[in-house]
Structures are given as C-alpha cells and as structure tokens.
Amino acid sequence: xxxxxxxxxxxxxxxxxxxxxxxxxxxxxxxxxxxxxxxxxxxxxxxxxxxxxxxxxxxxxxxxxxxxxxxxxxxxxxxxxxxxxxxxxxxxxxxxxxxxxxxxxxxxxxxxxxxxxxxxxxxxxxxxxxxxxxxxxxxxxxxxxxxxxxxxxxxxxxxxxxxxxxxxxxxxxxxxxxxxxxxxxxxxxxxxxxxxxxxxxxxxxxxxxxxxxxxxxxxxxxxxxxxxxxxxxxxxxxxxxxxxxxxxxxxxxxxxxxxxxxxxxxxxxxxxxxxxxxxxxxxxxxxxxxxxxxxxxxxxxxxxxxxxxxxxxxxxxxxxxxxxxxxxxxxxxxxxxxxxxxxxxxxxxxxxxxxxxxxxxxxxxxxxxxxxxxxxxxxxxxxxxxxxxxxxxxxxxxxxxxxxxxxxxxxxxxxxxxxxxxxxxxxxxxxxxxxx
Length: 436
Fold this sequence. Notes:
Low-confidence stretches: 7-15
Helix content: 25-40%
C-alpha cells in the first residue's frame, strides 16, 4: 500500500509541483486553524490583561477583536501562499503545453526534411532552424539534424544515379542558415559554441563567410570539396577546434581570404589539394595552432599571399609539393613559429618572394628540393631565425635573387647541394656542390 505521507517520485517531463492529497490536507488545515484561533484568543486575553493591571478589566470584545485581526493577517499570508502555489501549477501546465508543442514542431520539421519534394525539404530546413532558435534546451539537437542532412550521400552529377533535382539548393540553404547563426557570438539565438559535425560531407558550394568559430568542435574531417565556391572569407577562429583533416579539395574554389586565427586549433592536416583554387591570402595568424602537416599539394593553385604570422604555431611540415602553384608572396613573419620542415618539393612552383622575416622562427630544415621551383626573391631578412639546415638541394631551381640580409640568424648547416640543383644565393654565401 502506498504511503500517503511519502512524496510522489519525480517524473521526467513533469513541470507540476507534487501536492499532498486533499482528503489529508483539508482536515489537518481545519485542526491547525482551530488550534491557532484558540491559542490566539487566550494569548490575547492574557496579554491585554497584563497591560491593564489595576485599571478597568479587559472587555471580551477587545480580546475577540485582537484575535480576529491576527487571524486576518494569518489568512492573508495563507492566501498569498495559495496564490503562489496556484501560479506554480499554472506555470507547470504552460510548460507542459510548450514542451508538447515544441516536440510536435520537431517531429514535423524532421518529417519535412525527409520528403521527396525539394520545396518541402526547404520548408523543413527553415522550420528546424526556427525551432532551434525557440528551444535553447534542445538547440544542439536541432543543429545536429541539419548537419546530419549534409553528411548524407549526395550525387552532384545530374547524370549520376541517385541525383535529386533541387537537392543542391536545399544543402546551400542549410549552409547559409548555419552561417547566419555564426555571425554574432553575443546574439540570443547564436549557434557559436555548438558542435557542428560535417564529417565526410560533400560540398559543391556554400557560404560560411564572416563566421565566428569561438568554441565547440567544428568537424569537416574527410570532407570533399569538389565544385563551386566554398567561402570562409573573413572568418574568425578564436577558440574551440576546427578540423579539415583528411579533406580533399579537387575542383572547387575555397576561400579563407582575410581570416583571423587567434586561438584554438584549426587542422588541415593530411589534406589533398589536387585542383581548383584555395585562397588563404591576407590572413592573420596571431595565436593558437594551425596545421597543414602531411598535406599534399599536387595541382591547382593555393594562395597564402600577404598574410601575417605574428604568433602561435603554423605547421606545413611533412607536406608534399608535387604540382601546381603555391604562393606565400608578400607575407610577413613577425613572431610565432612557422614550419615547413621535412617537406618534399618535387614539382610545384612554390614562391616566398617579397616576404619579410622580422622575428619568430621559420623552419625549412630537413626538407628535400628535387624538382620544380622554390623562390625567395626580393625578400628581406632582418630578424628572427630562418633555418635551412640539413636541406637537400637535389634538382630544383632555388632563388634568393635581389633579397636583402640585414640581421637575424640564417642557417644552412649540413645542407647538401647536388650538381643538378640550380641555386641563386643572393646575399648568402654560396655552398659549393658537396654531394654527388
């Protein structure tokens, strides 16, 4: 048998406070009020009697009047408590109604996203985004659904099996919706700080320009950028983790121009740039870590021009440059650490022309230059440390022509120069052929 004095267990989804049974509370309340009234009557009589000692005896009407006044005050307090209790009940009812409505909206939006007609799927995108704004407690869940849609198999070729008309517009709309919620981290409906999982997704366009990545985990791991323009220009990476590791950039134009990397971690490691264009120009690296470690540049054009490296760690080490054009021209190295160590230059045109080295550390050590061109023309070396130690000049064309050395530490320690290499040493003392 259930103990009526034991509070009922809390139920998931309830917003209503637990109440004692009425048949138990009502008699108890009557007994308490009666006892309080009797006690107040006698107490008031004794109090008034003590105050009128030696004078006219206390009238019964005065005792009753005092008792009624005190009871009235107690009644007012009890009425206020009852009103508060009733408000809690009303709020519980309202919360349950809101929860039911939000759940129904979620189910409807999810159903629309799975519809065969693109127009209905578009409506589902807007419905899910609006629901995320209205439902902060489940905002991450709603965003997860939109990201999951982008991770689904996607046929970009109109003649390919599984191609769906209107699907590209649905996907571009999801990307624009996410972008619009990453503009202002202080907005009430911001999605900054949430996790965004695009693992293995296929992108043939999309606008993330001006987005602010300040927290959470943004995962493009293993994604494919195969066409159109993917715009990350003017983005800010100041916290959290952003992963492009293992991605493939094969025929798209991807734009990170004017981005700021001031904290957190952004990882492009083991990515492949095999075609199209990738723009990282006019970017600022002032903190955190940015990694292109182990990447392959085998075609297309990749631009890092006019960027500033003033802090943090930027790693291009263990990468392979076997085709296309990669440009770091007019960049400034004023702090932090930038590493191209242990990389292989076997056929690309890589340019560091017109760069300025003021401070910080830049490493090309242990790399192999076997083909193609690597140019440092018209650069200025006036501070910091630039290391070409243990470099293998085996067959490429390397030029320091018209460069200026004004200070700092430049090291070619234990570098090997093969007869097939063509080197213009510029302001540096030439290293004679020392390896057959």
